[in-house]
Amino acid sequence: MSDAVDMAPAALSAVCSNLSKACAKQLRKREADLFKSLSDYFNSKVIRVADADLNQLEEIAKQELAKNYPSLMVIAEEAVDRGTQRALTWGKKVTSIHTSLLARYQKQKDALLENNNLYVCEACGFIAVAAAVPDLCPICKAPAARFTKIS
Amino acid sequence: MHAARNISLCTKDCLCLFVCPTGATDTETGQIDFDRCLDGCRLCVDACPSHALYLVMDNYPEPKRKSAQIAKALQVLMESKSAQETVASSLALEAGTDARKLLAKAFAYSNRILSEDCGREAGFMLPQSAVVRDFLVGLLDQPFDEAFPADAVRELLELI
To answer: A23, A93, B62, B133: which has the fewest C-beta neighbours closer than 10 Å?
Structure first.
């Protein structure tokens, strides 16, 4: 049996939202809707963090950059698992940009977004702070149409 | 293998209607009638000027299993991404300023995308894989509350 079912609700929701997107790409609408309903259920089970702050994000991201990414890259290279190496290459860059974005925000506070919007790349998760949507994702080279403006 | 139509790319040149030998491309829903579509025919796929039609497998061959060690480590990373998504989405609910709220939302959204990518590489790429079937069967054994859409899981096990 799959040990993935023991993951926290937010991770279970991500497994299901990912499968919903996969079914949509295969043009299987019914299956996409069913996975979406599972993803929504698990989202509703996520227990909010009472004293959430930005430092927690920075702490977890730094931990991943120091431990998870390097050790996973070693085993992915050994196994010649190129898909995993691709995900790690993008993910590490995006995560490292997360930490620098948090540092910029600590310094500039809300002024960071005074004349800027936030755009997230749908393919790799890269967060752009810019006045207009980027032409190309600097991490995964996805075109402008793959960016979602956060509002 | 049957043809499927991405309706958002369709430019209504309607070449598919005139090359299809079975009428499977002419339906009220905009999607191909998979039951009438001939296995691997691809006449409509080649005729379509807007690339709105492509072939999809009816029965997927089982993808190569990921190494258990990599799959496990990716699941750990996935949980870490999801933990950040939870912190960020909690923050978005209680943030004092609009800018702070937007930043928290962006982090939640970004971490969901990172989490999904880890999930794909952990073996959840193709919905038609044994990994996904095991996962769905496993969900039915979990002690979730009565709001859990168990019927959706059973229907998915039938469909994929």
So the answer is: B62
